[in-house]
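Re: weekly structure request thread

Next one in the queue (118 aa):
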Amino acid sequence: VQLQASGGGLVQPGGSLRLSCAVSGSGFSINAMGWYRQAPGKQREFVAGIMSGGMTNYADSVKGRFTISRDNAKNTVYLQMNSLKPEDTAVYYCNADRIRHLPPSGYWGQGTQVTVSS
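Done, posted below.
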């Protein structure tokens, strides 16, 4: 199973970014997908998750600013990040899992760096 994440970069506070993660080679139904992040010196933390039927959940720190979505036909998950803050700076990892609940904890992507700085 391969997960290819993209869309990270450098953005000013208050700006927006959209992350994408495409899954290939799974051979099974991908029920749960999501995003985690890891800032320097900190543990990896859950950001947002989405089920194949559309149910979502978010970390409190990103509610109202981030939106997760997915295209089941393309096995791709997206994370629209608005009103970005310096504390959102981290490496963002996508995850895809066959489990029927959130958060996902299956296969990991390679990570994409998001830096929020003026």
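The chain is about 0% helix and 50% strand. The chain has a mean pLDDT of 95.
Next request, please.
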